[in-house]
Amino acid sequence: MNRLEVxxxxxxxKWRYAEGGSYVAKGAxxxxxxxxxxxKLRIQGVMPQQIIVANVAGEEVRLQLKDGCxxxxxxxxxxxxxxxxxxxxxVAYADVTKLGVDRWLAMLGCHHLYPSCxxxxxxxxxxxxxxxxxxxxxxxxxxxxxxFRLMRESLRVSTAQVQVDSTSLQRVDLGKNTAEAVEHGMLxxxxxxxxxxxxxxxxxxxxxxxxxxxxxxxxxxxxLTVDYLHEPELVLDGLALxxx
Length: 244
Hints:
By secondary structure, the protein is α/β, with parallel strands linked by helices. Helices cover 36% and strands 26% of the residues. The chain has 2 domains: 3-79, ATPase, nucleotide binding domain (Nucleotidyltransferase, domain 5); 85-103 and 115-232, ATPase, nucleotide binding domain (Nucleotidyltransferase, domain 5, 2-Layer Sandwich), CATH 3.30.420.40. The mean pLDDT is 92.
């Protein structure tokens, strides 16, 4: 069965398309293109019989996608919801509706890829999330902090003189101008945040791994001083697990 997996974030729509069990196409669209997803993907030969979606962009976008898929392909998309105990992961939240489906799917995807060890799943997108999972799939909890774009926007809106639009995240040395001070400072802060979660875990579980994902993961990877694995499609991997 031809399957389309769709990860709708706060700014982008990532997608991956499988025919006969093999992935043949993938890509990304701007969130504003949600009503045109079917039109744009049909041009690339995407003709799904099954559509499975993770959506954290709200009800309006969900309805746009649903309508577009029904009009473009005559297929009803399935919108995944977070579950308390399923696919090997038991969520720590008492109210699982408060855990974003993207975080849950990233944990599913990660646990499926690396089932025999504890994991720290770090997603770097509009928000930066960290979730800790033990080797048995028990979610121990997590953190959510603003992502780089939100940090830049906060400085732009809340200060008169710190107006930085740069998106270069490569160094953590002392900045020699305002742009460097902001960019290097943000990167240093995020690196310290991630490592403050990981380092205390190591004495308890030396086999614990760090897995990074999300749009900004590649930008920070070279600055991490802890060992890590980069899995850019964890949410889509989680969708694939559910679709099987």
